[in-house]
Amino acid sequence: MKQSFLFTKTQKETPAGEISINAQYLIRGGFVDKLSSGIYTLLPLGLRVVKKIQNIVRSEMDALGAQEILMPSLHPKENWETTGRWEVEEMYKIENEPYGLGWTHEEIVTPLLQRFILSGRDLPKSVYQIQTKFRNEPRAKSGLLRGREFIMKDLYSFHENQDDLDDYYEKVKEAYFNIYRKLDLGDITYLTLASGGTFSKYSHEFQTITDAGEDIIYICPKCKIAVNKEVFDGKCPQCGTDRLEEKKAIEVGNIFKLGTKYTAPFDFNGQNGNPLIMGCYGIGITRLMGTVVEAMNDKNGIIWPKTIAPFAIHLIQIDGGDEAIALKSEEIYEILQEKGFEVLYDNRNEKTAGEKLNDADLIGIPMRIIISKKTLLENSVESKERGSEKSSLVRIDELVNYLKKNV
């Protein structure tokens, strides 16, 4: 894509009132636009990132054998009255109408699967969706980390017995860690014991270490698990050590063993006549984007992981007023496009070299390729990875092979 084609623009100044790094950089870089507190438009660059996160999440859910669906956002009151949750504050209600906006989907997915699971041969079953959620969040803040409208992946599983749920639950844990590893968050994300367990003392969260985190967790150096401050009694619940390290963290996922909490009210029973056992597993997609920005940045802007960067290469034309530079830049851009590279080509003639390089740092694409009079004198381009101080000259006739090895 040519950068001159983008309708969005970068911003030099920090948006008024934005304290969090993810909100500052994502707005300034042209990834999102803030409509209202906790409500954001995904702009072209931001949507590319979100789609890549979705695809990583989707691949892991598919590998679990879960089937993707898309449920409504508009929920009938009667479903929520069945479980006694219509009055929860989290749900936006439509005035004078028996409907609310979905902030979670247990009340929808349970009767849905009930219509199709007719015998034990149909079990176990798991379904997931990637969908917009609406939550009456009284503390909408921190950019994409706490919003009123957001994109979420929610997975639901149904089982005949506890052993089957326990086995699936462990597989989901590993799938979640696969996701965080693919986002370069694996080394700083911990399985965390938290409150909220329905039929056990704990539920499980996945917490990513960052100074922007709203949660306090305590990490056991021996067990490599963490405990949320809200349930921490001073010791590791697994090994008993009291030498845990306190860290700030962002919750990037949660999983629950729900037991029969939702199947029983709907009389969703198995062959033995007892309600089916259920689990649910959530990941905030847009929250993950915000978390990556909080964890991977410097004073100049974002440093995207290669797996979810909006483009793999930022091709920057300097001295664009020179016809030879312009022609060679266009030629290289076309070659890289033909070879299948994702390229954002900064062909903007009205911008100075400094403005282009500042924008490149802000946007944070992993590989920067600069074409200028100086590099062309050596039939080369300048290559530099985002976040690195080192740059190198690469001969133009060797550029494609170089990028195949390094992008």
Model description:
This protein has 2 domains: 3-298, Bira Bifunctional Protein, Domain 2 (BirA Bifunctional Protein, domain 2), CATH 3.30.930.10; 313-406, Anticodon-binding domain (Rossmann fold), CATH 3.40.50.800. With 407 residues, it is of the alpha+beta class. Strands 8-9-12-10-11 form a 5-stranded mixed β-barrel. Strands 17-16-18-19-20 form a 5-stranded mixed β-sheet, sandwiched between helices. The chain is elongated and about 80 Å long. Helix content is 28%, strand content 27%. The model has no long low-confidence stretch (mean pLDDT 95).
| Overall tally of domains | 2
Class by helix and strand content?
alpha+beta
- Give the class-level CATH name of the largest domain: Alpha Beta
Number of helices: 10
Mean of all residue-level pLDDT scores: 95
The CATH architecture name of the largest domain reads 2-Layer Sandwich
- Assign the CATH superfamily of the largest domain: Bira Bifunctional Protein, Domain 2
The end-to-end distance, rounded to whole angstroms, is 17 Å
How is this structure best summarized?
The chain is 28% helix and 27% strand. The protein is an alpha+beta fold and 407 residues long.
Topology:
Blueprint: H1 21-28, E1 32-36, E2 39-42, H2 44-63, E3 67-68, E4 74-76, H3 77-83, E5 99-101, H4 106-114, E6 125-134, E7 149-159, H5 162-182, E8 189-194, E9 203-209, E10 215-219, E11 226-228, E12 245-259, E13 277-284, H6 285-295, E14 297-298, E15 301-302, E16 313-317, H7 323-338, E17 343-346, H8 353-363, E18 367-371, H9 373-376, E19 380-385, E20 391-395, H10 399-406
Parallel strand pairs: 3-6, 8-11, 16-17, 16-18
Antiparallel strand pairs: 1-2, 4-5, 6-7, 7-13, 8-9, 9-12, 10-11, 10-12, 12-13, 14-15, 18-19, 19-20
Helix pairs in contact: 1-6, 2-5, 2-6
